[in-house]
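From the methods appendix. Each design record in this collection lists the tokenized structure first, followed by the designed amino acid sequence. Records were kept in a plain field format so they could be parsed without special tools. The example shown here is representative of the layout used throughout.

RECORD:
FOLD TOKENS (281 positions):
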């Protein structure tokens, strides 16, 4: 039954993907673009479902988390070695494919940082999260930085016992978030990426309301499970903020807008949460 619930979680993505695709088709976006979201969702659902229902357990809490974190952070640094776009380093470019690495890595980092706090390594987490925020500041990526910062504040506030350290982290986080919004990039929005919700609104009020509801549906598994799990709540806040910042800056709307990377990040989050419920509870 638990495996079935985990698999059902993947289908919560379908309404947002469907409505976003409908808006892209209406706007005249080529099928070669919007079909990518559908393909990666199908592949992710199949692979994630297989991973969840495997008989042999392989939990996230196994293995050396420090080495895993180093590899993950290295991936976040990789965009600096690729060609920038008007001074912005957010993508890994492989021919026609652009991977928005932060939207894949940040959810994974949130989960692994929580694991480190379970190992009572809160000061290591404190320093590591600041390093990650600084990397995002230099991407620059105010949207991902803000979402990641809000998620990690929840984790560190829960796990760090000394109040002075909590306040110091919040203060430094606020300064970094503020700096990221002061030094925003000058990239222009792509209508079917950053402004997809406005394209949905152009379809009519009914579609707009359904679009908003589909985004709320995406958040539901994190906040429902978040009653018992801080890491799930942190992930829910992360995805919520990534949606909100699209309304105040030129940042991709996850799942609904064009872009396979946010879909991958969401699938990773759902998969690991369902695979490790006992450890994250």
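DESIGN:
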């Amino acid at each position: 039954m638990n495996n079935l619930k985990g698999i059902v979680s993947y289908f919560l993505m379908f309404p947002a993907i469907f409505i976003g695709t409908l808006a892209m088709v209406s706007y005249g976006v080529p099928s070669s673009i919007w079909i990518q979201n559908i393909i990666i969702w199908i592949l992710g659902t199949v692979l994630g479902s297989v991973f969840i229902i495997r008989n042999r357990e392989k939990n996230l809490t196994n293995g050396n988390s420090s080495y895993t974190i180093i590899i993950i952070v290295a991936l976040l640094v990789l965009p600096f070695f690729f060609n920038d776009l008007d001074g912005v380093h957010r993508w890994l470019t492989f021919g026609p494919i652009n991977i928005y690495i932060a939207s894949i890595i940040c959810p994974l980092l949130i989960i692994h940082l929580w694991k480190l706090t379970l190992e009572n390594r809160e000061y290591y987490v404190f320093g590591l999260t600041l390093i990650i925020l600084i990397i995002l500041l230099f991407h620059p990526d105010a949207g991902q930085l803000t979402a990641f910062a809000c998620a990690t504040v929840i984790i560190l506030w829960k796990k760090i016992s000394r109040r002075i350290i909590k306040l110091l982290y919040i203060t430094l986080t606020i300064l970094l978030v503020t700096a990221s919004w002061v030094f925003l990039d000058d990239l222009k929005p792509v209508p079917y990426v950053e402004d997809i919700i406005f394209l949905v609104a152009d379809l009519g009020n009914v579609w707009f309301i359904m679009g908003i509801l589909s985004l709320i549906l995406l958040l539901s598994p994190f906040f429902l499970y978040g009653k018992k799990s801080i890491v799930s709540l942190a992930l829910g806040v992360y995805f919520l903020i990534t949606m909100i910042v699209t309304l105040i800056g030129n940042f991709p709307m996850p799942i609904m807008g064009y872009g396979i990377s946010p879909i991958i990040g969401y699938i990773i989050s759902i998969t690991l949460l369902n695979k490790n419920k006992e450890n994250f509870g």
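APPENDIX NOTE: The longest helix spans residues 31-53.
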